[in-house]
Design brief:
mainly alpha
């Protein structure tokens, strides 16, 4: 069984009920392997709502001058799947998740989706074990911290619209996003290319099609501006 103490040290928490965290870090594929009757899906279900509630309250108190529309945009940016993936990656959560070996590639990596789901489940475990105050502290040091240091800015910018406007400036307006499914047997992967008048201006890969499109548009926009 994985030693979770290094993870607890990173999170700066002192667990009371260890079983919450075992459940939060158990992928459904591990139920059969270990012959257990739990996995992280139930905690993930609640973790999503807990994270959103805490982030909403943080923004409400942090920015008393901010409009509802602006807070909503920032909330979406903070709780988006990519932010949770970044937080999970920074915590090296892949080292602590219990799952079938077939879901781990030769470099020890697992899919972004598993990392995101595990992060949500982990927050729910902290919430139940230590309370909302501790859950907030962990979020403040992870996904909220990424927002505060502006690490999420490039993912919140609407590069698809920016590229559309830039292309129109040059008298061109036909933009085509071409998506290829290059998934392997371990995780989904989408490769999106952005074409204008038959010329590829940008390309990107992601395990989510919409995110691949956004990143491809960002690359296309930056190339055009150069």
């Amino acid at each position: 069984m994985n030693d979770l103490q290094p993870l607890f040290d990173k999170l700066l928490i002192k667990p009371k009920k260890y079983s919450w965290y075992i459940e939060a870090l158990t992928h459904p594929s591990y139920r059969t392997v270990a012959n257990v009757n739990y996995d992280y899906q139930r905690l993930e279900f609640l973790g999503d709502s807990i994270i959103e509630k805490i982030v909403r309250e943080y923004l409400f108190k942090k920015h008393p001058e901010m409009s509802e529309g602006k807070m909503t945009k920032i909330k979406i940016m903070i709780v988006q799947s990519h932010t949770e993936f970044l937080a999970a990656k920074n915590l090296e959560l892949n080292k602590y998740i219990f799952l079938q070996n077939s879901l781990v590639d030769k470099n020890g990596n697992i899919s972004d989706k598993i990392l995101e789901d595990s992060f949500e489940a982990l927050i729910a475990a902290i919430y139940f074990d230590l309370g909302e105050k501790e859950a907030f502290k962990v979020l403040k040091r992870t996904i909220i911290h990424l927002y505060e240091i502006h690490s999420l800015d490039r993912f919140s910018t609407d590069y698809k619209s920016l590229f559309q406007e830039a292309i129109q400036h040059y008298g061109k307006n036909k933009i085509k996003y071409v998506c290829k499914d290059i998934s392997n047997n371990k995780s989904p992967i989408y490769e999106v290319s952005v074409f204008t008048n038959g010329i590829c201006y940008g390309k990107a890969k992601s395990n989510k099609r919409k995110e691949a499109e956004k990143l491809a548009a960002m690359n296309a926009y930056n190339k055009l501006k150069k």
